[in-house]
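User: Some background: our group keeps a shared notebook of sequences we're curious about, and every so often someone picks one and asks for a predicted structure to add to the entry. Today it's my turn. The entry only has the sequence so far, pasted here. Could you supply the structure so I can complete it?
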Amino acid sequence: MLIGTFWLLVWFGAVALAVVAWVRLRARFRAHVDPRPVVDDVAVRLILDTGVLVTDEDEPLDLRQVHEEELRFWRELDGEPWDETEEAEEW
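Assistant: Of course. Here's the predicted structure to add to the notebook entry:
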């Protein structure tokens, strides 16, 4: 009985180590392959407050693509009515 309990504990310990190793490996792999987006809510607030976003990204933003997206946004917005005074009160 005592030897069976010993091997059961050894088996559970080995499984626990394997699970921890797998989770850590998965986390490192995910951070390397699929990094989180840099522009989150805090970054957006920083952009609105200062007008600038500084990141440690290896790849800089494609300014041409940003400009095209901004133009597309404003073209879509032109067709929508909005009350400027209501928007100004929120800020």
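Suggested note for the entry: The chain has a mean pLDDT of 79. Helices lie at 2-33, 41-50, 63-78, 84-90.
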